[in-house]
């Protein structure tokens, strides 16, 4: 298999197939765990793609599910092997949100709402440096630089000429007004957002203060969608010590409806770009 296989997405697909086989067999995760003398949480983690899957795991599960077609077993075993490859982000060491990076790397589109900061894919290096340093004051200079490098590398998904990520961003006006890194950094950052928003695959809207209460009042979230129909959409909610990934259809639908309301309440694209440019000029004074 080619080295550019995305291990995160491969684990998700494999987990989904293993869940399908279990359900076809009419077994619960608890029953499978009991048969294999493992914890139920291990079976759950294997099925949701949050845990690396070994070929031995696949062999044992196929045995429990009585999969007789060797071609299916071989295919699943190959997926398990592929899923243990390392993505480009592993070269940077232990990245807390590596699962998200894997999903973002393979996503076809991303819709995100940011209530406080400029979204990572649109951040300039000076802004990212100041933001990470302020958010993680006890982090070493070396770790800050590593995180910044990862953030800049992620931006290749929207700057590449081949199949760029379709990005739709709703920014709260607070993200424009919160001074991160100083006025010069903010001016350059907002000018960058305004410039990037003119690309055909990037849409930026601003939710102004005078909207008042709105569906995104509880905080940031993102919705990732994939080209392969086998990959379900994912809602990603970033946390301080752990992140939340929602994949059930009714959860994704709820957040999708919330996002539609945010887009409807936000300024349109031209009005948003004008506000971003106006605030950038304020920082230049």
TrEMBL record:
Annotated signal peptide: none
Could you name the domain of life of the organism this protein comes from? Bacteria
The residues covered by the HTH cro/C1-type domain are 18-72
Spell out where the chain crosses the membrane.
Answer: none
Return the SMART domains for the record.
Answer: HTH_XRE
Q: Which InterPro entries match?
A: Cro/C1-type_HTH, DUF5753, Lambda_DNA-bd_dom_sf
Q: What is this protein called?
A: Helix-turn-helix domain-containing protein
